[in-house]
Amino acid sequence: MNTITRDCISVNFHALDLNSNASFNKAELENKIDTWKAILQYQCNAKPQESIVIGAQTLNIDYFAQIYAAAELSLKIVIIDYIRSDKFKDLNFIDPKTKVLSPIDIFLHDFPLQFLKDYPEDFAKFNFFTNCSSRTYSTVDDIDYNISKDQLLEVSKIKPNKDDILIRATSSGTTSTPKVIEHTHEFIHAVSQRNSSMYKGTALHVKNLNHGASAAVTLFPVIMNNSVTKHLIYAIDEDSTLDDFVAAIADYKDELEYTFFPYPYLADKFIASSKSKNLTWPKLNLVTLSYILESHKEGVRDGIFRSIISIFGSTETIGPVVRNIIDKDSWEKDPRYFEIVDDFYKIKLYDDGKIGITPPVYNTETITNDYFVKDGSYLIHQGRSDLVRINGEHINLSTINQFNKENTNSYVVIDTLNHCLYIALWEELDESNTTALKRKIESMFTNVKVTKISHLDKNSFYYGIKIDNELLREHFRNHID
């Protein structure tokens, strides 16, 4: 069957939750899947092709079961960077990506309702997503886990169709309003099956399914692969150091072969904590959705882990379409040098440097806004370029992107609606340095002005591995005078 169901779970599946020290095999996971199918069907009134945000804050057997239960019930799993640290103070404000995905039919979260009542500011995010959803359920207070045998038997028979939508996400929204991207069971199954060959041995799961690529690049492929013999689960706290995490996995340092850090700063924290505890991971391959940073290359060079793999794709195509692998023998490789993985995608490099990607199943070409040049077997990434117009002046977005790459303490975002630029300061600057920064940016253009500057929390504006331009733009429009 070309669908994502329990049939895709490896017969060798065995997982250990390092937070609770609980272990479970495929049969135990399948029992949990049926329990959650019954809960979703009979208590949450889930209907085929309704949308669901699975808002668990941590990883455990219930989270895995909820994912597969939703898939088998033919629900659309909404991919939104749910556990990011947004400060939702204005509950009437809806960020652009959530807006295009709303209304969400079911919002499932794992916090006690009393917490939400007693600490409304601390849990404003839950109220935010509740406002964007038709039905909200706390797995702590709203769910009855006493499921009848008849209900379990009935839901076990329900399976999705290959043409049903499984994943519902959005495009990046770099220069305009994000658009909804949906992927079918058949496509996600094909990508997952293809990607499963990337993994073997002991795999480590550290983050929720809160980025579109996590579904078909890591979660489903790793779980379906018979060559993965052990799954370790540790729900990391990305707002703190990873010292506790590194200590928890230390006993597995000689067997770990794979983990996934979508955000580059998580890899940096992992390297720092490993160094502080004098630990190395000789078999470990890190997978990331970002460029490979110099600090990551040095981690490979110094033998902290075996390799780091940067994958390139898009929400429309998933991936990896191309990838860059850096190990100890190639640690000096330029992070922009990507190689085509296989012939799964049809890839065409156009004369202007853009690439066309035609995935199987859909057989429809997507042309990305990323530019490449060919050098032998390599496709060298030249950055992303979009042409926008402000006050009659054409601006190549690559100019802004380059500035943002070179200046890590500030970030410039374009507003084509109000014909201006905004500057987010990740670190506070005094008045003279702020003025100098403003003048420097405006000097790159003729008719373009910076109208607002504000010191902001960088972590509040991530979507996946990147700064969410649309979220940042809307914040300046609605919250900064």
SSE order and pairing:
Layout: E1 14-17, E2 22-25, H1 26-43, E3 51-55, H2 61-72, E4 76-78, H3 96-101, E5 104-109, H4 113-118, H5 124-131, E6 133-138, H6 149-156, E7 165-170, E8 180-184, H7 185-195, E9 201-205, H8 212-224, E10 228-233, H9 243-249, E11 256-260, H10 264-276, E12 281-288, H11 294-301, E13 305-314, E14 318-327, E15 337-340, E16 346-349, E17 354-358, E18 366-375, E19 378-384, E20 387-390, E21 393-396, H12 397-406, E22 410-415, E23 420-425, H13 431-442, E24 450-455, E25 462-463, E26 466-467, H14 469-479
Parallel strand pairs: 1-10, 3-4, 3-5, 4-7, 5-6, 9-10, 9-11, 11-12, 12-13, 23-24
Antiparallel strand pairs: 1-2, 7-8, 13-14, 14-15, 15-19, 16-17, 17-18, 18-19, 20-21, 22-23, 25-26
Helix pairs in contact: 1-2, 1-6, 7-8
First-residue to last-residue Cα separation: 55 Å
The CATH superfamily of the largest domain bears the name ANL, N-terminal domain
What profile does the largest beta sheet have? Answer: 13 strands, mixed
Average pLDDT across residues?
Answer: 88
Tell me the count of domains.
3
CATH class identity of the largest domain: Alpha Beta
Describe the global form. globular
Number-wise, the strands total 26
Helix-residue proportion: 25-40%
In the sheet with the most strands, the strands line up as 2-1-10-9-11-12-13-14-15-19-18-17-16
| Proper CATH architecture of the largest domain | 3-Layer(aba) Sandwich
Helical segment count: 14
